[in-house]
Amino acid sequence: MNTKIQRLSGTIAAQSSAQGASGVAVIRVSGSGVKPIIQKTIKKELEHMKAELAPFYAQNGNVIDQVIALYFQSPSSYTGEDILEISCHGSIAVIDEILASLYQQGARPANAGEFTRRAFLNDKLDLTQAEAVADLIESTSIEVARAAKNSLEGAFSKKVFSILDSLAQLRSTIEASLDFPDEDLEETNHDKKLAKLFRETRNSYQTLLEQTQVACKIREGMVVAITGKPNVGKSTLLNQLIGHDRAIVSDEPGTTRDTIEVNTTIDGYSVSFVDTAGVRKTDNKVEKEGIRRALEATENADLIIEVKDATQEKITDAKEANENHLIAFNKADLLNNKEEIKPKANNAFLVSALEGRGINKIVENLSNRFKGSKDTELTITARRRHLTSLKESFKSFDVARKKEKNNEAGDIVAEELLQAQNSLSEITGEYSSEELLDSIFNKFCIGK
Ligand code: GDP
C-alpha cells in the first residue's frame, strides 16, 4: 500500500477515437515532449486551447495530412501534462503514418488507460472519477451514462470525502481528549458531542451504503433467478418478462434442463434473468446437472422470483416472500373468479404468464430497485469494490462506536477509526496499491 504511486514517465501517443476507418480520427499525445513534437510536426506555435488548421509533417518533410491541432498547456489538460490532440482524416493509413511519425519524434505508444491513469496520478481525478470515465464510455443506456456523468463530476467521491471528514473529526476529538482529566471533559460536554458526531456519521454511512448498493446495480445490472417446481410456468413467465420467446415452453415436466440466462433492460437498466431447471428428485444425469446449476444460480442471484401454480397452492399463504424473494402465483386464468383472491404479502403477485396478466406489477417492482429510496437525489455509478470497501469501513466504524459506548480506552477507539478511514480511502484512491490501479486501468481501452 502506498499513498501516491510512482509517476508515469515518457511522452505517450495513441488513437483516442474508435479503431477503423472513419470521417475524422483523434490522436492524443501527452507528456513533457509535446512541445518539441509540435515544433517538428506542426511547425508553428500553438496557443492553449486554440484549434489550428495545419499541415502535419513527417520526419522527412512530407505532409501526411491537413489536421486540426489542439494544444492544452500543463496543468490545464485532461492528464495535467502538456497535451496535443490531432484530428486527422480517419484513414487507417493516415492514422498509422501520423502515429509512426510521433513515435519517431520521441513519443511511445500509450498503455491501456494510461491517459486517465496519468490524470489520476496528477490529481486531476480521484479513482472513482477515473472509473466513471470507463463507465461513461462503456454505457449503453442513457440512464447509466447520466449516472456515470454524475460520478465523474464527483457526486460519489464528495459523499465519501464527507464521511472521511467526519471520521477525522471523531479521531481528533478522541485523541485530544486523551490529555484531559475527566472533570474537564464533563464540563465541555465532551461525551454528548462525541455521541452526536457518532450518530450523524452512522446515518451518513447508512445513506451512502444504500445509495452505493443501488449504484452498483445501475452499473452492473441485477441478476434475477426464476425458480419453482417443474411445469409451474417459469419459462412462460421469462418469455413475458423479456417480451419474446427465448425459453422452450413445454407441458412435459423437466424440459428446462439447463439454466437459461437472458440479458435485457428494464427502463434502461440491465437485468439478467436466469430461468432455472425445475428442482425435483430425478435420476436423469443431464437433469441433475441442470438442477445443480439452478441451485448455484439461485445462490448468486440478487433477487429470486419463485413461481408457484396458483391452482395448486394457497395463494393467501406467501410467508416466504420478502424483498429479495418474490412469489408469482401463476396460472391465474385457471382460477374461477371466486378463487381469484389477491395474494396478501407485498412481494407476492397473482399472474397469468400465459395471458400476460399481472406481469407489469413485477416489472415495476424490479424497476423500483434501481431508483433506491426516495431521498436518493442523485443517481451515481459504483462498483463492487466500492461497496466492499464501504462495508469494511462501516464495520470498523461500528466497532469504534460500540467501544466508545462501552467506555473503552480512547486510543483503541481511535485505532478502529483509523482503520475505517483507510478502508474508505481505498475508494477514492488516496490509499491504494499498484495492483489495484493495474486492475482498474488495464480494463480501459488504449487511448483513454
Ligand atoms: P416451467 O417448467 O416451469 O418452465 O413451465 P413452462 O413455462 O414450460 O409451462 C408449463 C406449462 O404450463 C405449459 O403448457 C404452459 O403453456 C403452461 N402455462 C404457463 N403459464 C401458464 C398460465 O399462466 N396459465 C395457464 N393456463 N397455463 C400456463
Characterization of this structure:
With about 450 residues, the chain is of the alpha/beta class. About 45% of the residues lie in helices and about 15% in strands. The chain contains 14 helices and twelve strands. Helix 6 packs antiparallel against helix 8 (about 190-220). The longest helix is centred in the middle third of the chain and has 31 residues, at about 190-220. It binds guanosine-5'-diphosphate (GDP).
Question: What's a quick, concise take on this entry?
Answer:
With 448 residues, this protein is an alpha/beta fold. It is 44% helix and 17% strand. Strand 8 and strand 9 form a beta hairpin.
How many helices?
Answer: 14
Question: Ends: how far apart?
Answer: 25 Å
Main beta-sheet strand count, sense and barrel state: 6 strands, mixed
- Report the order of strands and helices: EEHEEEHEHHHHHHEHEEHEEEHHHH
Q: What is the strand arrangement across the widest sheet? A: 3-4-5-2-1-6
Note poorly predicted spans: 1-5, 373-377
Overview features:
6-stranded mixed sheet; 448 residues; alpha/beta; disordered N terminus; flat; binds guanosine-5'-diphosphate
List the topology elements.
Blueprint: E1 12-15, E2 22-30, H1 34-41, E3 52-57, E4 63-72, E5 83-90, H2 92-104, E6 108-109, H3 114-121, H4 127-138, H5 142-152, H6 155-177, H7 182-187, H8 190-220, E7 222-227, H9 234-242, E8 260-266, E9 269-275, H10 285-300, E10 303-309, E11 325-330, E12 348-350, H11 359-368, H12 384-405, H13 410-428, H14 434-441
Parallel strand pairs: 1-6, 7-9, 7-10, 10-11, 11-12
Antiparallel strand pairs: 1-2, 2-5, 3-4, 4-5, 8-9
Helix pairs in contact: 4-5, 6-8, 6-13, 8-12, 12-13
The structure holds guanosine-5'-diphosphate.
The site of guanosine-5'-diphosphate (GDP) has 20 residues, from helix 9.
